[in-house]
Specification:
The chain is α+β, with helices and mostly antiparallel strands. It has one domain: Aspartate Aminotransferase, domain 1 (Alpha-Beta Complex). It is built from five helices and six strands. Strands 1-2-3-4-6-5 form a six-stranded antiparallel β-sheet. A hairpin with a 2-residue loop joins strand 1 and strand 2. The chain starts with a helix and ends with a helix. This is MmcQ/YjbR family DNA-binding protein. It holds the Pfam family YjbR. InterPro entries: YjbR-like_sf, YjbR/MT2646/Rv2570-like.
């Protein structure tokens, strides 16, 4: 998948806006960041620690915990260039749900 494709997917999620954080592009729902694009070919998603553990077990070659405290809180790198499109979509939607207001999640039928 290309950067432009992941951007388009992120912006298609309800309430999403693009912004910047510490010099990296980010994608937010409301004021909460759910994905950043810190460098070419890598996205960082806001997952829970349990979601992160499951993803790292399933996809160890494509995913990694962000170093330090951010990773301990669930922030996870996904190297999307060679990743399966369905994995990217699921990770992106999960991160969006984790950050979105519950009313927006319910309104848009995403569980």
């Amino acid at each position: 998948m290309l950067t432009e494709e992941i951007e388009k997917l992120a912006l298609s999620l309800p309430g999403t806006q693009e912004n910047a954080h510490f010099g990296a592009r980010d994608f937010r729902v409301g004021k909460r960041i759910f994905m950043t694009l810190p460098e070419a070919g890598r996205a960082v998603f806001k997952l829970t620690p349990d979601q992160q553990r499951m993803l790292l077990e399933m996809e160890p070659g494509v995913c990694a915990a962000v170093p330090g405290g951010w990773g301990e809180r669930g922030w996870t790198s996904l190297y999307f260039v060679d990743a399966d499109e369905e994995l990217i979509r699921q990770s992106l939607e999960t991160a969006w749900r984790n950050a979105a207001p519950k009313s927006l999640v319910r309104k848009n039928g995403r569980h």
